[in-house]
Design goal:
Radius of gyration: 32 Å
Number of domains: 3
Helix content: 40-55%
CATH superfamily of the largest domain: Periplasmic binding protein-like II
Oligomer: single chain
Number of helices: 11
Number of strands: 11
């Protein structure tokens, strides 16, 4: 059976008013057209739905049962229209975000918590990845937005500023560097390094900077996370270059020292990538405008 929603709506109104003519007037159609729809509905269900009397109509037992179903369908349609309208207005839905460790460690938890508080019906699907993989996810459409290191080649995407952060040296407290006010990159190239795994934007960028100085980074240990880097540094297996926000909060409760880096590139950008801003969903555009100072 294929039921017509408009015919069911007319049937509901007829049941409410007890008159085909008055129901037709409410729906702005001719009484004959309403009567035809009701007759078609009765043929569809295979039994009379109305008792046609001189002073109006009343429902048969089948009509009474169909009325309950029609009301239930009407409520479902209203809810569907409301929810689809919320999607269309950008106040309900899922936003797929890929983000690097630096943004997740320093800024993103608080920013997303504030966003979700303002937009409780928007769901964030967050995946932590390395910056090159983030940009690949954005290019392929697997992510709506990607937060990545500005050190990374972003050919093929559009981007806006998210945050700025600063890279610093993390060293054991007893290390000779801990007594210095700041260092240049050349000053530390003879040290053993604790590094993030291959593919890290920081590691790749530092290797390029070392090559530009005619040197190489002496990587002693590679680990997966900032926490792993800090623990290896505390164990005196080497020094590390990390974002300020991954070092400063731990200085009071660890054996770490933090030394500023006197290089222009130590001040970097974290950026938000998208394949095409004009093609973003309203939900993703809402998050972009919330996170980026350039998003408005």
């Amino acid at each position: 059976m294929r039921f017509d929603l408009f015919s069911l709506s007319i049937f509901e109104t007829v049941a409410e008013l007890g008159s085909i003519a008055r129901a037709a007037a409410r729906h702005n159609i001719a009484a004959s057209a309403a009567s035809k729809r009701l007759s078609d509905l009765e043929r569809l269900v295979g039994t009379p739905l109305l008792r046609r009397q001189r002073r109006g109509v009343s429902l048969t037992s089948a009509g009474e049962e169909l009325l309950e179903h029609a009301k239930s369908i009407g409520r479902m349609v209203e809810r569907m229209e409301s929810e689809m309208g919320n999607h269309a207005q950008g106040i309900r839905g899922t936003i797929r975000v890929s983000a690097n460790t630096s943004s997740i460690t320093q800024f993103l938890p608080e920013d997303l918590a504030a966003f979700v508080k303002e937009h409780p019906n928007l769901h964030i699907q967050l995946v932590e990845q390395m910056s090159p993989d983030i940009l690949d996810a954005v290019r392929s459409g697997a992510a709506d937005l990607g937060i990545y290191s500005g050190f990374t080649d972003s050919t093929g995407v559009q981007s806006l500023l998210y945050r700025r952060d600063t890279l610093v040296i993390a060293a054991p407290r007893e290390h000779r560097l801990a007594a210095l006010d700041c260092v240049t990159f050349r000053d530390v190239l003879d040290e053993d390094f604790v590094a993030l795994q291959q593919g890290s934007s920081i590691k790749n960028y530092l290797e390029r900077q070392a090559h530009a100085l005619g040197s190489e980074i002496r990587t002693r240990v590679e680990v997966m996370s900032f926490d792993g880097v800090r623990r290896m540094v505390q164990a005196k297996l080497g020094i590390a270059i990390l974002p300020l926000g991954a070092v400063e909060p731990y200085l009071g409760s660890s054996e770490l020292a933090m030394i500023p880096i006197d290089e222009a590139w130590a001040h970097r950008e974290l950026r938000i990538a998208m394949r095409d801003r004009s093609m973003l969903t309203k939900q993703a555009r809402t998050l972009l405008e919330f996170l980026s100072p350039e998003g408005a």
